Amino acid sequence: MQKIIFVFFLTLTFLTTKAQTTGVKNDTLKQFLGDVFSTIQQNSVYKSSFDWPSLKTKVFKGIDTAQSYDDLIPSIKFIYRSINDRHGFLNLYGKRIAMNDKPTYAVRNVLQNQLKNGIPKIKTQILDKQYGYILIPSNNDFGENSSILSQEIQDSLCKLNPKNLKGIIIDLRLNSGGSMFPMLLGLNQIVGNGTIGSFVDIEGRPITKWIIKNSSFYLDTQQVAVVTNGCAFSRSLKIVVLTSRITKSAGEDLAIALRGKVNTLFIGEETGGFTTSTSVHYVNGQLLTVASAFIADRTGKVYRDKISPDINMVEGDNFQEPKNDVKVTAALNWMKKHRSK
After folding, report:
1. Residues 155, 147: contact at Cβ < 8 Å?
2. Which residue has the higher pLDDT, 253 or 101?
3. Which residues lie below 8 Å from residue 178, measured CB to CB, with a gap of 6+?
4. 178: phi > 0 → left, psi -120 to 50 → alpha, else beta; which?
5. Which residues contact 134 (CB under 8 A, 6 or more apart)?
6. What is this structure's pTM?
7. Gyration radius of the chain over CA positions
8. Cβ(255)–Cβ(184) under 8 Å?
9. What does the alpha-carbon distance between residue 153 and residue 183 come to, in Å, rounded to a whole number?
10. What span, in angstroms and rounded, lies between the C-alpha atoms of 262 and 322?
11. Is 296 helix (H, G, I), strand (E, B) or coil?
């Protein structure tokens, strides 16, 4: 099986070894840039469908005068920009080098304000006695704590007393990523068993399948996380997923895993559009990530960009009082009227 591909929280800061970054020999800089280029080429989702020799010629043009690692930054940005890799980046001696320095789209202040004090907590609430609400935030998991985080989500989910629920709202509006494993497994009774999605190549052919079986999450046959289920949900449960422009990376993976399920509706805004998985590498001790695969849902549909909601709604967010939230209200109205299939 191909090595595990992790999807990380986009705004994490990675620690790197400090080193002299100026007055470096030009040959050393050329070697480093060459290693960066080769690593990206060998692991990019576009590795078999791009004119890499031509790109390499352009990347190395003018490098003969480089005297510091900072002089390589424009060339590294150019690589990511040329292959349209929005998800990958190089952490170059403390500087994050990526295709874009800032988001290419606006995020509303009401959403940004919710993240000023860090990652929010999981939030649950019973609405109109028969409907549940759960906000799933981002996480900083690197794989070691997947089972612990899965259990935290699972325990929060079960507090909603599913025996009495006709529907549930899964709020991903503040979920900008992290590890997808605890999110998917923590909600496994809702996401469902079997193959719930997959990493795919440029042609849409499966690379690695996402599988939930016996309260465990697998990448093909490799077990990644385990959870103890504390409750059961009806198969006819109605599901509404709320999204925003903040929803991206692993947050989008969770949304995609819920795509294709019956009795499921998406309300909100288009997502951030980081629907690729990134593989992690080190070049001369510097952390480098590259978009290595696209994401497909359980039906095989491939997502190469943002996810569009079924019902587009922009304003009206109220995270303090979900019952006064316009999108939550729309979700409740749909679930009350929708006949389960």
Report:
1. no
2. 253
3. 7, 8, 9, 138, 139, 140, 141, 249, 250, 251
4. left
5. 122, 123, 124, 156, 157, 160, 168, 169, 170, 171
6. 0.88
7. 21
8. no
9. 7
10. 24
11. strand
Query: In this structure, which amino acid lies at residue 36?
Result: V
Q: Which of 158, 163, 94, 93 lies closest to 122, judged by CA?
A: 158
Inform me whether the pLDDT recorded for 1 exceeds 70.
no
Checking 78-85 for CB contacts under 8 A at 24+ apart, the result is 79/36, 79/37, 79/40, 79/55, 80/40, 82/55, 82/58, 83/40, 83/44, 83/46, 83/50, 83/55, 85/40, 85/44, 85/46, 85/276, 85/290, 85/291
Nearest-angstrom CA–CA distance, 84 and 225 = 32
Residue 215: pLDDT over 80:
yes
pLDDT in tens, 167-209: 999 999 999 998 899 999 999 999 999 999 999 999 999 999 9
Three-class DSSP category at 99: coil
**pLDDT tens by residue, 44-61:** 999 998 999 999 999 999
Average pLDDT, the chain: 90
Contact 94, 16 (CB under 8 A): yes
Strands (E), 179-334: 194-200, 206-213, 216-219, 222-226, 238-243, 264-268, 276-283, 286-297, 302-303, 311-312
Q: Which residue from 155, 164, 149 is spatially nearest to 124, judged by alpha carbons?
A: 155
Number of residues that make up the chain: 341
What does the alpha-carbon distance between residue 81 and residue 300 come to, in Å, rounded to a whole number?
Answer: 28
Interatomic CA distance for residues 308 and 197, integer angstroms:
17
Residue 16 buriedness (CB in 10 A; 0-12 / 13-18 / 19+) = middle
